[in-house]
Amino acid sequence: MTPFEYINGITFGSIAGVMATDLESGTMKHLFGLVLFGLLTLLMSYLSLKSRRGRKLLEGDPVIFISDGQILEENLRKNRLNMSEIMHLLRKKDVFDISEVQYAIIENDGEVSVMKKPEHQNATKQDAHQQSPPIPPPKPPQIPMELVVDGQIIYENLRSIGKDGKWLMNELKRVASVASIRDVFYAAMESDGSLYVDTRKDEV
After folding, report:
1. Is residue 135 part of a domain?
2. Which among 74, 91, 117, 134 is least surrounded, fewest beta carbons within 10 Å?
3. Gyration radius of the chain over CA positions
4. According to the model, what pLDDT value does residue 128 have?
5. How far does the signal peptide extend, from start to end residue (predicted)?
6. Is 68 found in the same domain as 41?
7. Per-residue pLDDT at 11
């Protein structure tokens, strides 16, 4: 449901509710308002159907917030989203590791579409027929451990893996060449022990 549809639903419900409860003003007054708003809604729908500019104004555009494993912080800010909300939306799509994501897009209706990188996509039946003899199953994957969120160290998670702030800064400098923790938007310990780092200065 787009914001335009959501507002329409609330407005129609409000007018109908007032019409049902306000017996003193008369039904025709509220019925006129209901019909007028209905015509306005049809006009807006027609405008969005015929005009891309009108459609963008009423419904907005899909927004990419992850590209090639990089978080696009500016797009998050424009849509008033934080990392907790992003991780929640990704987990609903069975994505626990940002580095596996090729593209993640917020659609007009608020839903999230995710395209994983080819090496992390589920195997198809065709792939199964082309596979070599079976190999032992891998160890169950672990959920990545968040260590930095929006320039702040999550010390509780850092202690849970037996590390300290000095170790983290050394790793951040080694992996992403950052000079300050404020330069890091998000960092997490991957299931394989490697460090995923997204800095505030993305190059996409």
Report:
1. no
2. 134
3. 24
4. 54
5. none
6. no
7. 74
* Alpha-carbon gap, residue 160 to 146, rounded angstroms: 11
Q: Are 196 and 168 in contact (CB under 8 A)?
A: no
Can you read off the two tokens belonging to residue 23?
């017996």
Overall domain count for the chain: 3
Tell me if 79 sits within 8 A of 107, measured CB to CB: no
Domain identity same for 109 and 147: no
Task: Tell me the pLDDT tens digit for each residue of 118-170.
Answer: 888 776 555 555 555 555 655 555 678 899 998 999 999 999 889 999 999 99
Are 24 and 54 found together in one domain? yes
Residues 7 and 53 in one domain: yes
Structural domain contains residue 134? no
Residue 180 lies in a domain: yes
| Residue 31 belongs to a domain | yes
Same domain, yes or no: 51 and 82: no
Residue closest to 69 by CA, chosen among 104, 43, 41: 104
